[in-house]
């Protein structure tokens, strides 16, 4: 079974607005990663946050991690049509970095 | 740097036939992963290699799926015989390995359709 669950399953916003996606997981983790997947393509790594970090930024992306609530959020600011994609959280745990992906959020940014 | 290469991009076979997928990871990456992604779902790990050794194959249906990583570089995933439920995208990924805080780099996958 998949450990992470994203919320919402689908999100539609206007260009320029902010998009927030949430991820919940069940067990202790080493790190949490966010990936983007465009239709028909492989996943692209966006950002990795370690279990001892609470917030991380990369360009228009902001990720938070709350290990007490076992949850993370991904904020995309000033969205663009090119941000239209599915977004997945992935949790890494164990000595060999076993990675489990969530169910994904499908984001549509309307120009 | 060159990315993860996968072939073929598409494959259509009939049930009970055999199929094989090939993956060439990024040079120097010790860890290689095979995932199955069913439409509308997240990737599910099938097998993880560290160099040429298997570290996790707990979700690999071993009665029909097999995988090998030759000399710790290229890898092949085989399905024999295929079932209708195997229709999915098969993704290969690699990472530097060792340190647990390394991102994975994905190929574009092989889309398998079973008739």
Can you walk through the features of this model?
The complex is a heterodimer of chains A (111) and B (115). Chain A is an all-beta fold and 111 residues long. Chain A is built from no helices and eleven strands. In chain A, strands 2, 4, 5, 9, 10 and 11 form a six-stranded mixed β-sheet that branches. In chain A, strands 1-3-8-7-6 form a five-stranded antiparallel β-sheet, with no helix packed on it. The radius of gyration of chain A is 13 Å and the shape is globular. The model of chain A has no long low-confidence stretch (mean pLDDT 93). Helices cover 0% and strands 49% of the residues of chain B. In chain B, strands 2, 4, 5, 6, 9, 10 and 11 form a seven-stranded mixed β-sheet that branches. Chain B has a four-stranded antiparallel β-sheet with strand order 1-3-8-7, with no helix packed on it. In chain B, a hairpin with a 5-residue loop joins strand 7 and strand 8 (75-79).
């Amino acid at each position: 079974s998949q450990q992470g669950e994203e919320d919402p399953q689908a999100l539609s916003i206007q260009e320029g607005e902010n998009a927030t996606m949430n991820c919940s997981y069940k067990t202790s983790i080493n790190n949490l990663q966010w990936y983007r997947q465009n239709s028909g393509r492989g996943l692209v790594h966006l950002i990795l946050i370690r279990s001892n970090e609470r917030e991380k930024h990369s360009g228009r992306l902001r990720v938070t991690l709350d290990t007490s609530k076992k949850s993370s959020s991904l904020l995309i600011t000033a969205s663009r049509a090119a941000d239209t994609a599915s977004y997945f959280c992935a949790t890494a745990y164990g000595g060999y970095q076993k990675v489990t992906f969530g169910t994904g959020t499908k984001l549509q940014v309307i120009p | 740097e060159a990315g993860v290469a996968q072939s073929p991009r598409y494959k259509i076979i009939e049930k009970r036939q055999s199929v094989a997928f090939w993956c060439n990871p990024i040079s120097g990456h010790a860890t290689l992963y095979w995932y199955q992604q069913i439409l509308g779902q997240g990737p599910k790990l099938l097998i993880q290699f560290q160099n040429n050794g298997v570290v996790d194959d707990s979700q690999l249906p071993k009665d029909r799926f097999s995988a090998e990583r030759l000399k710790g570089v290229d890898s092949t995933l085989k399905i024999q015989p295929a079932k209708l439920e195997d229709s999915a995208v098969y993704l290969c990924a690699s990472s530097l390995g060792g340190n647990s805080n390394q991102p994975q780099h994905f190929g574009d996958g092989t889309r398998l359709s079973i008739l």
